[in-house]
């Protein structure tokens, strides 16, 4: 890598207590983390806060990062958990039904319902895997590492979730 | 289902628009984050007549002090303005450092991993342009006085990094893998030097030493070990360079390693001193110590340059400069 500090060196410095090194470690992951959070929460402010909170959590857990383990799936896993917590807190504080975490209704809704709305109505785990795959653009292997499942299971879950979205995609004119 | 269509639909539906500065906000929060103190349960206070008298006298004293401070301040408005100017200058300097650091970071790429990379020279050119811009920005700025020595060294290391990268391209054109690897290794080391120096200068690095006295003591102990031939592992580079066990008598790789170890150690001393300004009574000696450390560091850069150019006479001169500068720095702290 041209003129980039090796990740291993940054990890070692971060574990030794160097916060600036830790921040540099997260620099290349920030955009993916923000995309994940904004895809899940669909709110720019909440997404930025969630990534920041996840960074604090990651800092406290940096000692758990195994040597040689990829940083991105590890960090995005923390971001995903943080977003889940934000969604839960919304459940308690918001009374609007649209943002509630409810059992997923059938997605073959009226043609006016867009993809965002359909995603909001999906189960959190389904939404997470779709956002990771189609918005963060992660390969199945990284999704698997992020979620702690096998790549095959990741592919199956994506297929199932996208199947539920199929009517929406058709309504929107996609070749499905 | 056509995956490409799904990708496009998701991106169309979920893109909220970029929020510039998000990473920098997170970085700032990470570095300055302190857990909030747990709030204590409020206690009900019981005021006696004596307590009221005590509070009243404290309030009166505070008012008298505030009036006195206001009077003194009104007589020193010029000083206040100067201090405000200094603060503004420091803030502007730190913004400049961070901005140039980010530009440099954005110019890096996944290139030059091997001598066979045909895109390497173009990629190097991007980084070198960013480094040159950084140096130009620093040259056009009034450096805050407490950072003068470290700032000067940063410019030298930025320049050295650019030279290392250009040398790597030259070695690539000459089809010299050993030279290419040595130059890339040197450039990578420079990146490891530039990072902490930048973070210290932009005010985001944790303190190496808690006080000025501790910073001086640590530097003195390291210099003692180096000069007196009783090195700990951190002092090996400096000690080898002082005792002729290294450049040019050792292999290029060993010489490079000793130079890097010594540079890292000197950087720690310089950072500690930059982060802990000396009391007024020791300011002159502290400046001399920092300048001598900077001289030693500059000599190390010259040794590396001589190594890359295989220039024996420059190497000899640079080693002599290093020995002299370390000797002077070793004598400095005793006077502080």
Q: Which structural class do the helices and strands of chain B define?
A: mainly alpha
Q: What is the average per-residue confidence, as pLDDT of chain B, rounded to a whole number? A: 85
Largest sheet of chain A: none
- Count of folded domains of chain B: 1
List low-confidence stretches of chain A.
92-112
Rg measurement of chain A, Å: 18 Å
Label the structural class of chain A. Answer: mainly alpha
Helical run tally of chain B: 12
Oligomer: heterodimer
Distance between the termini of chain A: 40 Å
Could you describe the largest sheet of chain B, including whether it forms a barrel?
Answer: none
Range of strand content of chain A: under 5%
List the helices and strands and how they pair.
The complex is a heterodimer of chains A (176) and B (336).
Chain A: H1 7-15, H2 19-26, H3 30-41, H4 44-60, H5 71-93, H6 115-120, H7 124-134, H8 140-147, H9 151-171
Chain B: H1 3-14, H2 22-32, H3 49-75, H4 77-107, H5 120-139, H6 148-173, H7 177-201, H8 212-227, H9 236-242, H10 252-275, H11 283-309, H12 312-331
Helix pairs in contact in B: 4-5, 4-7, 5-6, 6-7, 6-11, 7-10, 8-9, 8-10, 8-12, 9-10, 10-11, 11-12
